[in-house]
């Protein structure tokens, strides 16, 4: 006979219901526990503060089922036993949700501004403007020669600074090819309070002393785009460059202590672990910080689920993890939602000040997974990647996900 008492999820554990199944998010230990329909039903009733006997009655559970469920939940350190009805506050981070959006509370909106400062490149990548998953972290060449930016850059940086923007990403082909313009922009950036200045590059100019001196002087953080397979470089440069030249430049950065990240553009499906092991060997390092960017027919898979932290979980319930806090200013001074989604133009500096588009930006920022089909039916919606640009460029929309291997309506992985 099962004794009657109350059960509560531990304060760091959240239950997320899908249309068929459910999942438990352990925001401290970083666990994501999938639940079948029976376990999900038990957790739902438990969360409503029913006693164990009431849960058994309402869920029509057999005693043997409950014994097995309790054994699982206690063994996994998921629940707390209580003698009476108890309310346990969930662990939270930052402001309570009900305060967000209130007029008296100024929550910083702009975290990162992408500024297209250059339209020249020493490579001719056939996939340059093709759909890429997380392609905003890779170099991308501009489609226009209309350089309106140079006459408006100070005004733009002033607006961004006033809006408390923290990070500036300089991109567009290879910004180091126009070193004089980059110097002028860096000089202006130092007049403001930005925390990090990032430059996206393909790495071929990093053997230039003038470039290295510029990186050091302004403490620039470099994102180097590497393309896989590595023998593709000859094709992209018409025989002019090879991967070993980029590798040599990166090894020199290691010697000088310059900060950098690697954006690894994969042009075909591969085992990412094997590639990272190869890069560790090439770079003579025990660890390598490489961000995979998928440039082929890519779909989200089970191994890419990423259990969130407390802060990430709360953020994803209010904002889109891909779009939130970002804006792009193009070479011809258009305001874009994302550097890859060129059709979503929010305005331009000729007819709108930056502050005038914040309301539109906020609307896009709030396209959470709860508003996206079929993600809103999925129990993993707060633990997976998201790239709205990839979906849009592959013919989907901001409000739909087609490229995922999980079907929440069936509760099955393909």
TrEMBL record:
Domain of life of the native organism: Bacteria
MF terms in GO: catalytic activity; iron-sulfur cluster binding; metal ion binding
Entry keyword Ribosomal protein: no
A Pfam family: SPASM
Span of domain Radical SAM core: 115-277
Swiss-Prot/TrEMBL cofactor(s): [4Fe-4S] cluster
Keywords tagged on the record: Iron, Iron-sulfur, Metal-binding, S-adenosyl-L-methionine
Boundaries of every 4Fe4S-binding SPASM domain copy: 324-378
Entries under InterPro entries matching the protein: 4Fe4S-binding_SPASM_dom (IPR023885), Aldolase_TIM (IPR013785), Radical_SAM_PqqE_MftC-like (IPR050377), rSAM (IPR007197), rSAM_sf (IPR058240)
UniProt cross-references to PANTHER family, sorted A to Z: RADICAL SAM DOMAIN PROTEIN (PTHR11228), TUNGSTEN-CONTAINING ALDEHYDE FERREDOXIN OXIDOREDUCTASE COFACTOR MODIFYING PROTEIN (PTHR11228:SF34)
Protein name, per record: Radical SAM protein
